[in-house]
Design brief:
It comes from Nonomuraea harbinensis. The chain is of the alpha/beta class. About 45% of the residues lie in helices and about 15% in strands. The relative contact order is 0.11. The structure holds NADP nicotinamide-adenine-dinucleotide phosphate.
């Protein structure tokens, strides 16, 4: 077997759920990967300093300049002395510094700048921050060369793997009938809308199969995350929304499927462990050996599938609506949701109010083409302000 090429990787959002798992993958494969740079918000300075010391990162950035003194102190304690950058500009600078691959694992729309900088600098972009693709769809697609952007989301990683199976002569788009995106259904699967009235953040944060950061976990409970993923699939694989299905699969073993024109369906199966799609994105197009333990085929398994209840969880249908409208509509859906999730977590909005408010903001928005970063950011800012107005004075 050919020796793997050593790739330098910059990890943005290194202290989060995806970021820490990415550093695990990198540390377990020193013949394949080394760390070039790290960036985080600044809330976990000691962890970031330890990561810098253990990985030998040359540059570290924190978005919050107030975190710099704590970071410098922690770096000294860990015996590390990388270059330290601060603020949103510092994070963007790290995203553009020389390396082979940038992993963007920042949460939320504020990851857009780093996505654009990394693509513009010609880096391979391993994209966990789906929000940047949803918010800046046309801008990101215009910048990305074919094959430059590799998905980290387990569903899109699965879809990509299933698409590799389209034919013995390589990818054949004409052979694809539809994409089938799986959803665990979240902690409230099977409940009616009325049965979700009293949901608390603690209940919404208890995901049945995945351990993830707080925003994506709440988004999984409302199914907004699945809505974002449907738009992400549309943008990544260029299929119309009428050819992207969602099916609920509570065990989270089948991460998505592709149905072909001849009636064949190819599925990707592995235990719910983000280290597999992270490793595949970092090593792309090569597979990283033993990235995750495989499904144990010596045991009995029961895997079930059920349709999505659109009445109880309207977020996916709303995402199809904004995705079809295009332009600034997906950015508005995402921005309003980020405000509503924060309000819900702080006790300022009922659980059902999240998607209800997003729908109101989306309805009021005048869609424009999203032709520039300024236009997208203006739509994002408008949606945040409108969602804040609509949620003001509410409580859980
Ligand atoms: N978790 C998963 O399993 C999973 C799966 C699929 C996709 N994703 C996607 O991956 C992304 C990250 O999710 P996560 O669950 O890993 O989130 P998370 O655990 O909340 O971590 C977010 C990371 O972003 C950093 N950050 C916050 N603001 C920043 C800023 N302004 N500049 C730079 N870094 C900043 C945080 O730093 P601090 O620690 O300093 O706050 C932290 O390192 C999201 O887009 C999510 O939808 C996650």
């Amino acid at each position: 077997m050919r020796a793997p090429t050593l790739r330098s990787v910059t990890v943005l959002g290194s202290t989060g759920s995806v970021g820490t798992q990415a550093l695990d993958v990198i540390a377990a494969n020193p013949d394949r990967f080394r760390v070039a740079g790290l960036a985080a918000g600044g809330g976990r300075a000691d962890l970031l300093a330890r990561q810098a010391a253990e990985s030998g990162a040359e540059v570290v950035a924190v978005a919050d300049p107030a975190a710099v003194p704590a970071l410098r102190e922690a770096l000294a304690a860990h015996g590390a002395s990388p270059e330290v950058l601060a603020g949103a500009d510092g994070v963007a600078e790290v995203a553009g510094r020389p390396c082979d691959t940038v992993l963007n694992a920042i949460t939320g729309a504020l990851g857009l700048t780093s996505t654009l900088v990394a693509l513009d600098a010609g880096r391979m972009l391993a994209l966990a921050n789906k929000e940047s693709l949803i918010v800046g769809g046309p801008l990101v697609k215009r910048l990305a060369r074919p094959g430059q952007l590799v998905p980290v989301d387990s569903e899109h990683s699965a879809l990509q793997q299933c698409l590799w199976a389209s034919g013995p002569r390589g990818h054949d788009p004409g052979a694809v009938k539809r994409l089938v995106v799986t959803a665990s259904g979240g902690p409230f699967r099977g409940r009616t809308r009325a049965e979700m009235t009293g949901v608390t953040p603690e209940m919404a944060l208890a995901h049945p199969t995945w351990s993830m950061g707080p925003v994506i976990t709440i988004n999984s409970a409302t199914l907004v995350n699945k809505g974002l993923e449907v738009i992400e699939a549309h943008l990544l694989f260029d299929l119309g929304f009428d050819r992207i299905e969602v099916v609920v699969h509570p065990q989270s073993i089948i991460h998505s499927m592709v149905e072909y024109i001849d009636g064949s369906t190819i599925a990707q199966a592995s235990p719910p462990d983000m280290r597999l799609p992270i490793a595949l994105a970092l090593g792309h197009p090569e597979r990283v050996p033993a990235a995750t333990p495989p499904v144990d085929w010596t045991r009995a398994h029961t895997w079930t599938f059920e349709p999505l209840d659109d009445a109880a969880f309207p977020a996916v249908a709303l995402a199809r609506h904004v995705g079809s409208a295009g332009g600034t509509a997906p950015a508005v859906y995402n921005a309003a949701n980020e405000v509503c999730v924060e309000a819900f977590v702080k006790g300022g909005l009922p659980f059902l109010g999240i998607v209800d408010t997003v729908a109101k903001v989306v309805e009021e928005h005048q869609v424009t083409p999203a032709g520039s970063v300024e236009e997208v950011l203006a739509a994002d800012a408008w949606a945040r302000a409108r969602a804040a107005e609509l949620t003001a004075g509410q409580s859980r």
